[in-house]
What we know:
Strand order of the largest sheet: 5-6-7-2-8
CATH architecture of the largest domain: 3-Layer(aba) Sandwich
CATH superfamily of the largest domain: P-loop containing nucleotide triphosphate hydrolases
Largest sheet: 5 strands, parallel
Strand content: 5-15%
Radius of gyration: 30 Å
Number of domains: 4
CATH topology of the largest domain: Rossmann fold
Amino acid sequence: MNLSHNIFRAVYQESDIERYKSNPFIEALPKVSKINELKIKLEGKVKYDPAAGYLDARQRAHELCGLLDDFFQPLSIHVALEEKIALMIRGGYVARNIATGQLQQHLQNGYERMMTGDINSFRFAEAPSTARCLSLIGCSGCGKSSSVLRILATYPQTIYHEQYNTYQLTYLRIECPVDGSLKSLCLNFFQEVDKHLHTDLTERYGRKRHSTEVLLSFMGQVANQYAIGVLVIDEIQRLGRKQQEGQERMLEFFVALVNIIGVPVILVGTPKARPIFELELQSARRSTGIGSMVWEPLPQYKNRIDKKTGKPKPTEWRLLTDKLWQYQWLIHRDEPLTEEIRNTWFELSQGVLDIVVKLFVLAQLRAIITGVERISSKLFVKVYESELQPIHPMIEALKSGKAGSIAKYSDLQFREIDKRLLELSKQISEVEATKLDSLPFASDSEAMRLYNLLLGMGCDSELLVPLVQKAVKDHPNLHVRGLIPLVLEWYEQTPDEIEEPKEKPKLIKLKDWHTLSSNDLRFGYSQHKKQSTELYQRYKQQGNIFDITAWLKQSV
């Protein structure tokens, strides 16, 4: 039998856990990962080459935007979430073992529900449920949905059991419809199953005028027919938001799905979803069968103790920013990540992971456009004020710590920010077009790479232009690696060969001081001109302030 490319043929591994043994649905899953293995599986695979920092601006912009999709740093909360999901998937299959006939009992009960339209109907009262439910609540952008999907991606989603002629969907994610109706939710469910199994459930059930109750019964039956390991329902705050009756019906269905039909459920939503779980104590208690997780932004300071040494570990905020700081496509990317920059970064993002990464990417794009080619606190502030205006209310709410304010702005959309990313990328293309008029070799990618490399080494731009042009012209067969020492040799000889009086140093206007070297006093002034105290401290750290008190003590 030929299977579609997205469907895996079952390969069984005997389980080490007694209650999981001889269960095909469980033994077809990967082994439970150890923590070190899990971190490797979850970690984002960013393709980064330091040499790419010297490519032309447009190429760097493309490399940089890939960071939005490929960067992922596993944290302790991801480990905790993975553990819960692993327990839910395997635990839910314990009472749906196809080898013992338990699944068939659930299917017969499901048929009874389809015929009667009553979600609580059953034929076999002895069909137990070992399923659990997890509610996951957090504000938009904090990484809850992406974390769930990344964890689930460590499992093969669709498995075919040839011996039993049965398909197994280890997980299925559906998003609640904007209109918040249960009927639309059911249709979304059928469409997702069709997409992964190439079935026609939407046509079979969705096109007919079935009541919501009947559709829910169909949904429960399909969930067991294809052995869904866990059903993830995202954006749960949209459901039944217009009327309390709809919320109660929705809650009753989820309780039935877990306790009667036997399918584990993960409910994901913003703080606006809290009232849904507070409608009635009994249902709310049932809906948190394996716990409720509040997915909060990453804190800046949180003590972590190493169990082996008993000493404090670096905070996760520090580990995250240190890791992210490595991925810079800027000429001056070797600038240190100072505490000032780190604190500003947190102040403007409040630890919301999506904003942390997007602020970092936007800052780099802005650094390329302006020619500053480095990240600073001042640049972060400018980017926040100009590019992240849509999320200012959310950030201010998080700073306040007030639950009501946070819930009010918890589900802000980031479409405007994504739009700004595209606009800044376009501006980089325009900057590059301007360079074509100023640099004679701007259309030559190798020459531009050579030029940027030497510029990053501290060479003067005006002296470099003719030297790079000459090197590329005289040595067309040499690569950049061979041209660098040649141009550097010419560069060092240039001042000695000039016999006429030296020209006056080029005047650099105040507005361009931010493009100078970090060690230049003028660059420091451009970053702190309005904060004289900070400017003084910067100069002092660099050793540019004469300590007259210490000198006097030595002189006595």
